[in-house]
Amino acid sequence: MRRQHECAARYLRLSISPTQLSKVRPGFGSVVRGARGAVVASPVLADYDPEPDYFYHWFRDSALVMAALHTLPSPESTRDFADFVDFSLALRRLDGRALCADARWREAVRDTHRPYLRDDAELARVHGEAVAAEARVQADGSLDFSRWARPQHDGPPLRLLAALRWWPDVEAELRGPLAELMHADLAFTRAHAAQPSYDIWEEELGEHYYNLRLSAAALRQAALWLAQQNQAGTASACAAQAAQLLRRLDDFYLAEADGSGYCRSRLQADGSLSAKALDVSVILAAIHAGEWRGAHTPADPRLQQTLARLERVFAQLLPINRHRGAGLRPALGRYPGDVYYDGGAWYIATLAAAEFCYRAAQGEARALWRAQGDEYLQTVRAYTPESGELSEQIDRDSGAPRSARHLAWSYAAFLSCVNAREALWRAAP
Fold first, then answer.
1. Long-range CB contacts (within 8 A, 24+) of 248-256
2. Residues 152, 202 contacting (CB under 8 angstroms)
3. Where is the GH15-like domain (predicted)?
4. Most exposed residue of 49, 157, 317, 421, measured as fewest CB within 10 angstroms of its CB?
5. What is the pLDDT of residues 265-288, one digit of tens each?
6. What is the C-alpha separation between 429 and 319, in angstroms, rounded?
7. Which CA distances in Å does 268 have to 71, 194, 305, 384, 421?
């Protein structure tokens, strides 16, 4: 575990401020050089050949990387976070209307790629607060002009949660810029928390557990920070809105006749049950929220039932799980029916299950939950190459790495999981 922790920390930094890398996209007629402060989802310069092109700064992924970086205290980590704050503030000045005014960039796009471009009407709406609803930007800090799943509302609350972790540890000169970013993300979250947006997997527009849970956590934790800043009125409003969102999350629980049930990942407008209702994003929401007691945390029996249901389903669904060795929990995927890169297991999903167990162990059945967490971590170990490199997926049949290589989120998930395990062992009697 110590060796893999060193690998994860080293490989994670490959995605942070990738100024030594340039991504050529001939179809779009563009060359993108990584900027200081950017965090690319993967530093591998792929083009769906077969690995996907992840050389973008995703708001969601970058926030999770910064949260994991906080577990690696060092002057280098502090500098990286400061650069991330500067980069994030600069994004607020982006304006899609400038791309509409000078359309020469469209002339460089090949005919094969023109169907993937955003039209002027959509680009013209991207300015001011709307920038924060973008899923991603180019690694150089410019707008992504390709079609994608928008709007997405989980980036600002996740970035706010990461900033709140860093706030007590930053130097005085960073507090001004950081506070500016936090207030902007807080304003966005307050305005958009309950509005429809795309889900964590960027596939469906609607009302999603993950987005609501992260918004509730960001508002509640920001309320504590605001109270310390002598902003009692705003703090009270944020706390009240967080409580309202948590009550709405109660509606996501689907009780069954035998007393079991699970929390659905999304609610359909027509009241029907989505094919993606059972989704590991609910477990990810519980750990990304960073709250360990009460409703919609790892201590909540409803979420514990959700993890148990996911485990039973994926134990049968993925061939690699059917003959797993003793002491191994099933490797988890995203949801039944997933077809992205054939829908294998995901490192982030299996690591999320492990971290969920370690967090649940802070309550009752401590030894049982701790053992389950270790069994999930043993599963990750079984499918981790000797090099320590983590991809996005684990092939459902062979167990080989699949999809994006050197996925920053996978490394962040490992660091977060091990941090939870160490915290549990430090508190052990």
1. 248/194, 248/212, 249/209, 249/212, 249/213, 249/216, 249/295, 249/296, 250/295, 252/209, 252/282, 253/302
2. yes
3. 34-365, 373-418
4. 49
5. 999 988 899 999 999 999 999 999
6. 39
7. 37, 14, 21, 37, 36
- What's the rounded mean pLDDT across residues 286-295? 97
Q: Is the dihedral of CA 254, 287, 216, 40 positive or negative?
A: negative
- For the segment 188-208, the average pLDDT, to the nearest whole number, is 97
Place of tokens 């110590």: 2
What would the pLDDT profile of 383-418 be if each residue is shown by its tens digit?
999 999 999 999 999 999 999 999 999 999 999 999
- Is 53 within 8 Å of 60 (Cβ atoms)? no
- List the Cα angle 72/76/81 in 5-degree steps: 80
User: Are the CB atoms for 117 and 148 separated by under 8 Å?
Assistant: no
- Tell me, rounded to whole angstroms, the distance of Cα 235 from its chain centroid: 26
Confidence (pTM): 0.97
In tens, the pLDDT along 56-72 reads 999 999 999 999 999 99
- Residue among 333, 330, 365, 354 nearest 416 (CA): 354
Q: Bridge partners of 206?
A: 197
Average pLDDT on 127-146 reads 97
Find out whether 412 and 420 touch, Cβ atoms under 8 Å.
no
Q: Which helix (H) or strand (E) holds 346?
A: strand 345-346
What is the per-residue pLDDT across 247-268, written as a single tens digit (0 to 9) for each? 999 999 999 988 889 999 999 9
Q: How many domains does the chain divide into?
A: 1
Distance, CA of 22 to CA of 41 (rounded, Å): 14
Instruction: Give the chain's length.
Output: 429
Q: Let me know if residue 354 belongs to a domain.
A: yes
Mean pLDDT in residue range 220-226:
98
Judge residue 112's burial from the number of C-beta atoms within 10 Å of its C-beta, 0-12 exposed, 13-18 middle, 19 or more buried. Answer: exposed
Domain residues for the domain of 353 are: 256-429
**Enclosing H/E stretch for 427:** helix 408-427
The answer to whether position 186 is within a domain reads no
Q: Which CATH number does the domain housing residue 292 bear?
A: 1.50.10.10
- Pair of tokens at residue 261: 């049930």
Nearest to 156 by CA among 137, 133, 130, 127: 133
Amino acid at 418: V
Tell me if 379 is assigned to some domain: yes
Report the pLDDT value the prediction gives residue 429, as an integer from 0 to 100: 61
